[in-house]
Design a protein that fits this description.
The structure holds three protein chains of three kinds. Chain B is of the alpha/beta class. Chain B is built from ten helices and five strands, in the order βααββαβααβααααα. Chain B has two domains: about 150 residues, Rossmann fold, CATH 3.40.50; about 80 residues, no CATH class. Chain B has a five-stranded parallel sheet. Chain C is globular. The chains are: A alpha+beta, B alpha/beta, C alpha/beta.
């Protein structure tokens, strides 16, 4: 483990050298919000952001990703993207989400399209400087990450500490000019940042211990909350689309004007959308808003945890912000299931 | 099998959707590789007999237009409604909210009595004849139109989204218009425009009409959350979809 | 973008890339169903088990999950019966011998022909195109006839015109000890057989529930009623297998469309042991 101290000028120069070496996707301001985008110069980088509109997973599982090119005669060729790039300034909760996607895309039948982009990514995590309005990472253990990153930036007074790990981390360090190791006092201040973030990234307080969530959900299938909330659900899928751990997708073909050449691509999809479980012929296997609404909370709290052993909500709070109707707060949902046990469920 | 014979017809509208087709530029050449235009007032003078695809733009406002549309329907294998006026009645349908005489007086003043200005209730195309396919928007999205034509030519059912504009808006990482304290119709409006208006600094006007099952009850409830009234919302909804009973909640 | 061949670290196959196959034979079955006999261009057998499905691809149209309707005991070619319901299946119906399709798979679980069914009496209960995947198991059982006890085949179609594989019933029954019963929901002028829903056939057969296994496949509405009918006759949920349709899209447990509660049908299904899914609120 190597931790370096960078003053602001060293940081700027280092980011400049990263940009010269590889495409760097970092956090930039967009109107009053923040987004990950291609950095052209170091000055664009905003490590003091609160949360981005979309999570950085969009560079590993793009919103639209070409999978295959087809030619006449049912000839398909795989399209790969493996150009190395840097993801700069990923908050810990978003990094945890990417690690979960790694498990999900690797398991059983590995998805080489995902994995190649993932291998091409050098990920620099940045500890949260400004808490967003709805973040609750502190409640779900994602306020801080201690491993698996390539680089970790932490703001300490007049500059940043940069910790690097592994081969990609060595490459990151090699681009530092006159690197100076962090001293004990600085490392101690970094610990303070972590402690503080664990405490303060709790704009909503989850009262259900994450490990008990699965059992709570198993008891809550018929809870009236699902109907009550879904009555206001637009089925717009905003909660899905901004979620760093959602990964459902649709696959479509688009031909050029020749009609027999084109690409097969995938696009982000969402289980809240009306036609998500519709089959050819028109039967919809999840036809009600309530069933779709409930499915999302079961995926986060029960179904995906059964697959990977971790809560699939990382507490970024994006869904809470994105839901126009104000019904997508997972903390409120889970807390209420616990506080208002459903009579039928309780009787069992 | 020869190329499908396609004709374009216009009724009460600004002809902006046809103009979008004319604006295809080089792709217009690609388009006529796939289809044979046989009747198109805006671009050619020929008249056709039987046609494979009739593309109908505009809303239907007069008895003689209804008759003409029915004749087109008889000649056409497939009838496609092009743009908001054709799919929903569009902005024209605002007129149905006031008595006809009043509308004529407001618009034409002293000339209101002239015989060529006589017209009736505004109707969408499907209110007069069966419609096989709707291409939404005011104006239509030309990339969507091109894609749908290619999909039809390849023999597949065109993909037309039944999800709200929010989907495309989120994918473009726009700041939600509600965060600007605006009423945006994105949550109830059919996507397919790639969130054009919100991506260019405006709320969604709802020009593509509602998704199959818009949650209008939610929309009404949400108004209170943002300090708006139901009237504020209805005013927005009626611009493009005043004839849609189901959006009245 | 670089292509697969140019990449140095080509480590894994592309789970989304179809294998080319050729249509060998096309047969009209009903107004809406056609049978396609296919062969992989590589010459390999498909390598499937009865009850599995493939994703059939036509470039520019897309993919659709289709049950395999022939048994692997019938050689390296395989058969699909395709109902015309959407874009892809409509396009498939235009194909002629010699035309190409893309194939991914086989995917999913299969009827336990080599385990639970073996040595026992078997009831196949099929509604409409539910007979399509089950035919693969029927052929398998017929081709290994001595491995199984008495075989009951109960088939219900909407009308006489919707019956499938009519010229094969005789062959299915020829090894003996096969009871074949069918009914139609709505008879026509020429139909002299039974009329009524498929559940009316269950009381017509005599079986010992302790040594019998049932396989059910049909439209979504059918399952509940057939299961009730079998349970009334003493069948345990452990001995009932169902094949469930969902929107299997990627076929590899990623895209999420086919989920029933926590289960990806394309991975843990489409064939389930009933006792494993009775708790799943979204299953039946």
């Amino acid at each position: 483990m190597s931790v370096y101290k960078l003053n602001m000028e060293q940081l700027r120069n280092w980011v400049g050298r990263l940009i010269a070496e590889r495409p760097v996707y970092g956090v930039r301001q967009k109107d009053e919000r923040f987004v990950f985008g291609r950095l052209k110069k170091p000055e664009e980088l905003r490590l003091d952001y609160d949360v981005t509109i979309l999570p950085p997973k969009k560079y590993i599982l793009p919103t639209r990703e070409n999978l295959l090119a087809y030619q006449p005669g049912e000839h398909y060729e795989s399209l790969w993207a493996d150009e190395p790039f840097v993801l700069l300034g990923v908050h810990p909760y978003d990094f945890v989400a990417i690690r979960q996607l790694d498990l999900l895309f690797e398991r059983e039948k590995p998805d080489e399209h995902y994995l190649r982009r993932r291998r091409a990514a050098t990920i620099i995590v940045a500890d949260v400087e400004r808490a967003s309005d709805n973040v609750f990472a502190g409640c779900v253990g994602t306020a801080v990450v201690k491993d698996a990153f390539d680089g970790l930036l932490t703001r300490v007074e007049d500059g940043y500490l940069l910790e690097v790990r592994g081969e990609k981390g060595e490459w990151l360090a090699s681009l530092l000019e006159s690197p100076s190791p962090a001293n004990a006092a600085e490392l101690s201040r970094r610990n303070d940042v972590w402690e503080n973030n664990r405490r303060r990234l709790r704009k909503h307080e989850l009262k259900v211990p994450p490990e008990q969530l699965g059992d709570l959900l198993r008891r809550s299938v018929d809870h009236p909350l699902w109907e009550e909330k879904a009555r206001l659900c637009y089925s717009c899928g905003s909660c899905n689309l901004v979620c760093p751990t959602c990964y459902c997708f649709d696959v479509r073909d688009e031909s050029d004007w020749s009609l027999d050449k084109g690409v097969r691509y995938r696009v982000w999809d969402g289980c809240l959308l009306e036609d998500f479980a519709m089959v050819a012929g028109g039967h919809n296997f999840r036809p009600t808003r309530a069933a779709r609404y409930r499915h999302r909370y079961y995926r986060k709290g029960l179904y995906v945890p059964e697959m990977i052993g971790e809560l699939a909500c990382v507490g970024c709070g994006r869904c809470i912000t994105a839901c126009t109707a104000g019904i997508a707060n997972p903390v409120e949902v889970y807390n209420r299931l616990q506080e208002e046990p459903h009579e039928d469920d309780a009787a069992e | 099998m020869g190329k499908p014979r396609v004709a374009i017809f216009d009724f009460a509208c600004c002809e902006g959707c046809q103009l979008q087709i004319a604006n295809l530029d080089e792709d217009l050449l690609n388009l006529i590789e796939l289809v044979e235009p046989v009747e198109w007032r805006e671009a050619m003078s020929e008249k056709a007999g039987q046609i494979d695809v009739a593309i109908v733009e505009g809303s239907i406002t007069r008895a003689e237009d209804e008759q003409r549309l029915k004749e087109i329907r008889q000649r056409a294998e497939i009838l496609m409604a092009l743009g908001s006026c054709a799919t929903h009645g569009g902005v024209n349908k605002l007129r149905n909210r006031v008595p006809l005489e009043e509308a004529q007086r407001i618009v034409y003043g002293a000339s209101a009595g002239m015989p060529h200005l006589q017209s009736g209730q505004v109707k969408a195309v499907h209110e007069v004849v069966p419609v096989d396919l709707k291409i939404y928007g005011c104006p239509i999205e030309i990339t969507e139109f091109s894609r749908i034509i290619r999909e039809l030519a390849a023999g597949r059912t065109p993909f037309v989204p039944n999800y709200p504009v929010c989907v495309e808006c989120k994918l473009r990482e726009n700041v939600c218009r509600y965060e600007y304290n605006e009423i945006c119709l994105g949550p109830v409006t059919r996507a397919g425009c790639n969130a054009r208006c919100p991506s260019n600094g405006m709320w969604c006007f709802g020009c593509r009409g509602p998704v199959d099952h818009p949650n209008i009850n939610a929309a009404y409830d949400v108004m209170a959350k943002y300090g708006k009234t139901v009237e504020d919302l209805v005013g927005k909804l009626e611009l493009f979809c005043s004839g849609e009973e189901r959006i009245r909640g | 973008m670089r292509t697969m061949l140019q990449s140095e670290e080509q480590t894994l196959e592309d789970i989304y890339r179809p294998r080319p196959a050729t249509v060998v034979r096309v047969e009209d079955m009903t107004r809406t169903e056609k049978l396609f006999e296919l062969e992989l261009d590589s010459g390999e057998p498909l390598g499937h088990m009865p009850g599995q499905f493939v994703e059939v691809s036509l470039a520019g149209i897309g993919e659709a999950p289709i049950s395999i309707s022939s048994s692997p005991t019938r050689g390296r070619r395989f058969e699909l019966v395709v109902r015309r319901v959407g874009s892809l299946t409509r396009a498939l119906h235009h194909l002629k011998p010699g035309d190409k399709v893309g194939i991914r798979g086989p995917f999913g679980t299969w009827f336990p022909v080599d385990t639970d069914l073996r040595g026992r009496d078997v009831i196949f209960i099929c509604g409409g195109i539910g007979l399509v995947p089950v035919r693969s198991a029927i052929q398998y059982v017929v081709d290994n006839r001595t491995d199984y006890g008495h075989v009951f085949i109960l088939f219900g179609a909407r009308t006489p015109a919707d019956r499938l594989f009519t010229d094969e019933y005789e062959q299915w029954c020829s090894p003996g000890e096969v009871t074949f019963l069918e009914t139609v929901d709505k008879r026509d002028a020429r139909w002299t057989g039974a009329e009524g829903v498929i559940t009316t056939l269950i009381p017509c057969i005599r079986f010992d529930p302790a040594r019998t296994v049932a396989v059910i496949c049909g439209p979504p509405v059918m399952y509940r009623f057939v299961i009730v009918g079998l349970k009334e006759r003493g069948m345990a949920e452990e001995n009932i297998f169902v094949s469930l349709e969902r929107r299997m899209k990627c076929g590899v447990g990623k895209c999420g469309h086919c989920q029933i509660n926590h289960i990806y049908v394309c991975q843990k299904g489409p064939v389930f042991r009933l006792s494993e899914i009775t708790d799943l609120e979204e299953a039946l």
